[in-house]
Amino acid sequence: MKKYEALGVVETQYFTIAMELLDQMCKSSDVEFLASENYLGGRLVTLIIGGSVSDVTVAVDVAKQVAETKANQPLKMALVINNPHAEIMKYIISSQPQSEVEEGKLNSIEMETKEESKSKKKKSKKAVKNQ
């Protein structure tokens, strides 16, 4: 599991504003999007980012500035957690790395296509024998 120097947690109203904040945070500094959670059908969204302390701090500050320009102050909470404990990281990031998940999907797709091609070959051989 990758270790981050800091985590940024931003909670805002409305999914679209959360996506705008995430876009601005990722553009403003070298942070990595780790997770998000939707509550109340997308009316309350929590974004979690990770990176170095300075990058996460800059990203969270940018999120605060962007949210100030919006009507009704949609930002509910924004904080930076320095040096997060490993137990927190286990809760945020799934235990199976994304690359393993993608490889697993890829392997299952490859297996399906191999099985399909084998069955097509068998059918074509049977068709040739029947003629």
From TrEMBL:
Record's keyword terms, sorted: Bacterial microcompartment
BMC domain mapped to chain residues: 6-93
UniProt main location, coarse: other
Keyword Magnesium: no
Region Disordered, annotated ranges: 96-131
Places the protein is found: Bacterial microcompartment
PROSITE patterns, per database record: BMC_2
Protein name in the entry: Microcompartment protein CcmL/EutN
Top-rank lineage group of the source organism: Bacteria
Tagged with keyword Manganese: no
Organism of provenance: Anoxybacillus andreesenii
Annotated InterPro entries: BMC_dom, BMC_shell, CcmK-like_sf, CcmK/CsoS1_BMC
Residue ranges with Basic residues bias: 119-131
